[in-house]
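To whoever is on call:

I kicked off a structure prediction for a single chain this morning and the downstream step that reads the tokens threw a length-mismatch warning. I double-checked the sequence; it's 137 residues and nothing unusual in it as far as I can see. Pasting both halves so you can look.
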Amino acid sequence: MTPHYPLELVAEALPAQVGTFRRALRRWLADALGPDDEAADLGDDLILAASEALENVVDHAYEGVTPGSMTLTARVDGTEVTVVVTDAGHWREPDTGPTTRGRGIALMESLAEARVDRGEPGTVVTLRRGTAATAQG
């Protein structure tokens, strides 16, 4: 795989920005990974996982305060794609009672190698996936 420029997006953590980031990531992944079906499937998985992380920033990181920033970065290193979503907000523990919510981290983990680092302030979600070249190597 040829080297590819990294992607970096920064915006206020507002619902409309999730779609903007998602579309930019889709275009970047198509350019970075190519047009074949395996690359498209990988891209779809990473876009869904990143979208979930971004939605969590919008819904939870700045709850009760003025929304701060959220950042999405993406890069290809050899045969691995890494997408990182960060915020400077506060972690909110998931509800422990019955709810229809709270499945976001499990979803991200089913789509990519997902790591969630919580800090004060801020959360960093790192998503990694090998490319098709990894499986062939």
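Update from on-call: the warning came from a stale cache, not from the record. Cleared it. Sanity check on the structure: The domain at 7-93+107-136 is CATH 3.30.565.10 (Heat Shock Protein 90).
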